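Thread: "does anyone have the structure for this chain?"

Original post by V.I.:
We have the sequence but no experimental structure in hand. Need at least a predicted one for the grant figures.
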Amino acid sequence: MYPVWGAGGLTSLPTDDTITLQPGYVYAVSYVFLATPEPGNYFQILPFMNGTPRLLYSFTGNAANGRNAAASAFFLTNEALYEPVDLSFSLTYPDTVRNIDISGAVSIYPAAIAVSEEFF
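Reply from O.Q.:
Generated one for you, tokens below.
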């Protein structure tokens, strides 16, 4: 599979770890990450918008007795209505995790179009 960045021109990938959302839309963002922290440990995915953490959109995956853990979430954001927004994700895990393998996917869709005041 090949990653698709900027399909439709609404997103771009200016760096390896930042997705830019173009203005004029409410975006639906979903993510799923699968990881293998040490047994009994966890990992956390924390989205950032323009460098500011969005704690309400974060999720923690717990490994319980095995090493496999998953974290997924969905959120709507209107932060890109009037100007571009840089979206990135942070991975954190406790010091007791010696190594971690992670893979995942992020999906971004326009959920609504901003309507100018002239429309009304």
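V.I.: this helps a lot. The chain has a mean pLDDT of 87.
O.Q.: and The two ends are 44 Å apart (CA to CA).
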